Amino acid sequence: MALERKKQSFSFLIDETQVTLSALLRDGHKAPILFLHGFGSTKEDYADIVNFSCFDGHPFLAYDAPGFGETECQNLQQVDLTFLVKTALKAIEMVRFERFHLVGHSMGGLTALLLASMLSERVLSFTNIEGNIAPEDCFLSRQIVEYPALSDEQFFDSFIERTSQSEDYASALYAASLRHKVKIDAVRGIFSSMVELSDHGRLMDTFLGLPFPRMFMYGEQNNHLSYLDHIKSHGVRLARISHCGHFPMYSNPTEMWQSIYCMVAGGRG
Q1: Taking a C-beta distance cutoff of 8 angstroms, is the pair 174, 244 a contact?
Q2: Coil, strand, or helix at residue 21?
Q3: pTM (whole model) above 0.90
């Protein structure tokens, strides 16, 4: 029987900015799992882990990143990928995860990649769910450059409208909740830093150089990604999720959880 998840808040300072992190977590006796959500999503993307008995005994932590959900951040203008990595470092310190499995989606996958490169001796495995590793991955974040607007509010309104009209799986569902989950003042800093890192941060080299088991999970709608064969040839396990685009947790959660468990079960430790 799965241990029940609980909701908890953690307060701390990052670069003199007060953050109150809203989290879901569970205790357990097996290797812990850290989950990082994508842009426009929240910790609840991972709440259903408790419904999959294969994860029984695994502690986990999922939280709303600054700028999203129920987490409060004193200065949203400071939030970028560097700030998100510092948040992740604080979070695992708060819950005392020593060695852990790492799962990140999209923005959270990029955050996880940067975190993993800093803590490579502590990560047991890394499941990267369409997190940025190449310039072509900026199909959402690059809109901050491609669609200039008079204000952040105007940009976000247009972003929601474009996303809602996309033919990709679950895009309309995703777009419908963006206004409720995202704090507008954090959008520009996050998107701009994602584009900068994807274009100039040598993310592919970082990903392929990680010394532990890695999986790249992608929706079948995105099987056009140019680097899939390349990363597979360098030892990265590929997980192609059927009937899915960028959001497996919305389109095909059962297959997503099964693939994550394969990594957790196969990771060392």
Answers
A1: no
A2: strand
A3: yes
